[in-house]
Amino acid sequence: MENAQLIGLSRQIALQRQMDVVANNMANITTTGFKAENMLFEEYKMPVASDRDFQTSDQPLSYVQDWATIHDMSGGAMVQTGSELDVALNGDGFFAVQTPAGERWTKSGAFQLNASGALVDANGNPVLGQSGPITFGPQETGILIGKDGSISSSAGAKGSLRLVEFANPQSLTREGNNLYTGGTPTNATNTRVMQGFIEKSNVSGVTEMAEMIRVQRAYETAASLASKQDDLRRSAIQRLGEANV
Q1: Is the pLDDT of residue 157 over 50?
Q2: What is the pLDDT of residue 219?
Q3: The pLDDT value given to residue 1
Q4: CA distance 8 to 1
Q5: How does pLDDT run across 46-92, given as a tens digit for each residue?
Q6: What is the DSSP string of 47-111?
Q7: Residues 6+ apart with CB under 8 A from 214
Q8: Rounded Cα distance, 151 and 88, in Å
Q9: Cα–Cα distance between 229 and 217 in angstroms, integer?
Q10: String of b and e for 171-190 (b: at least 16 CB within 10 Å)?
């Protein structure tokens, strides 16, 4: 009975982690450039049991292990805003931004200008160009961003957005504020810049809601089995006590 409870507990822990991932996806359904996450599970076999009192050989015990979290890098819907500071990336690329912890990568192109005229993301992090942060003077107008990321204004050329791609996007680690870290960045070659657009989250509300219901029901089933195992143990102890009276 103890083995059955431990196996059930491993399933409950995995389901709780999966519910956390689903809830995070749901919470970011309207976050610009957000990419959904999915859980990968694997079977973990305990090859040798500790009990040696039985003549038959021990059977391996199979536990549930949440092996990894993967990023769903499929594109979200492109929505036209008309704002000259809204930028979407059609392809595999990421924007580079400067944070207090170092360079980070993001898909969110809802940019704005801060009080100093620097181009920043929604969290106030400077957006990086090929030569560093991009700034505009107070009198500059007519900001244009080309398909290759080149930037110009009424004052002339302002440089180019630093766009990066990754051979293995799954090597990236998600941080807060819709940022990623890690990986080995290379210059973007399969990315087209779209000014006046933003990329919506690729989370499907219907799919995530259905997954949330499925996970909740699976957790309730596992909890019910654990409760029945407790009842069996309680009944066995009670009968053994009565037999020894």
Answers
A1: yes
A2: 83
A3: 47
A4: 11
A5: 665 555 555 555 566 676 777 678 999 999 999 999 999 999 999 99
A6: ---S----SSPPPPEEEEEEEEEEE------EEE---TTBEEEEES-EEEEEETTEEEEES--B-
A7: none
A8: 14
A9: 19
A10: ebeeeeebbbeebebeebee
Predicted pLDDT of residue 15: 87
> Do the Cβ atoms of 169 and 185 come closer than 8 Å?
no
CA dihedral 23, 25, 31, 32 (to 10 degrees): 170
Question: Encoding tokens for residue 206?
Answer: 């219907």
Q: Three-state SS for 231?
A: helix
- 104 burial level (CB within 10 Å; 0-12, 13-18, 19+): buried
Gap between the Cα atoms of 48 and 43, Å rounded: 15
60, two tokens: 């391996």
Tokens of 164: 């990066």
| Count of residues in the chain | 245
